[in-house]
Amino acid sequence: MVENVNTKTQKNEIKGKLVYEDKVIQKIIGMALDSVDGLLAVDGGFFSNLTDKLINTDNVTTGVSVEVGQKQVAVDLKIIAEYEKNIPKIYEEIKKIISDEVAHMTDLDVIEVNVDVIDVKTKAQQEADEVSVQDRITQATQSSEASLNTTKSEEKDKTQRVK
């Protein structure tokens, strides 16, 4: 007599769902784009630029728009390219870096990367534009303090000479 033993291996399958907030994907993309040669800035538009002019921020998500699905991501960027650099090459590098980094960190497929080149500048022009009002106030305060200290020192010297 042959006994039929029905042995089922039960896998304990844990159910759940992994979801990424848009800002997570935006941050991954913003940080990854730091290494793109010829990309001076990802631009967030007038209000974002106004905020950046008022205070110093390190917000890497500015100017990065994403649509995140369960398995796929679409990306829209507005960029400032460096003068005399090949913009189509910059675009290709942006697509590769975004696709590689998002896939590496999330297993999501980047299906679309749209880039709107809104300006072309030299590095010097971009650096000058990045100086915020906060930086200018700090510089003016330091300059005023130095001038005041010099004046106080000169007055002290005059007072000591009179005595």
Question: Can you describe this structure?
Answer:
There is one protein chain. With 163 residues, this protein is an alpha+beta fold. The chain has 2 domains: 22-121, Cation efflux protein, cytoplasmic domain (Alpha-Beta Plaits, 2-Layer Sandwich); 122-155. It contains 5 helices and 4 strands. Strands 1, 2, 3 and 4 form a 4-stranded mixed sheet that branches. β2 and β3 (72-82) form a beta hairpin. α1 (22-32) crosses α3 (87-106). The protein is elongated and about 95 Å long. It starts with 21 loop residues before the first helix and ends with a helix. Mean pLDDT is 80; it is low at 45-57.
| Spatial separation of the terminal alpha carbons | 125 Å
Which class do the helix and strand fractions yield? alpha+beta
Per the CATH scheme, the topology name of the largest domain is Alpha-Beta Plaits
- Which architecture of the largest domain per CATH? 2-Layer Sandwich
Topology order in helix (H) and strand (E) letters:
HEHEEHEHH
Shape: elongated
The first-level CATH class of the largest domain is given as Alpha Beta
CATH superfamily grouping of the largest domain? Cation efflux protein, cytoplasmic domain
Core attributes:
20% strand, Asp23, alpha+beta, single chain, 4-stranded mixed β-sheet, 163 residues, Alpha-Beta Plaits, Stress response regulator gls24 homolog
In short:
The chain is of the alpha+beta class.
List the helices and strands and how they pair.
Blueprint: H1 22-32, E1 39-42, H2 46-54, E2 64-68, E3 72-82, H3 87-106, E4 109-121, H4 123-129, H5 133-162
Parallel strand pairs: 3-4
Antiparallel strand pairs: 1-3, 2-3
Helix pairs in contact: 1-3
Biased composition (Polar residues): 135-151
Biased composition (Basic and acidic residues): 152-163
Organism: Lactococcus hircilactis
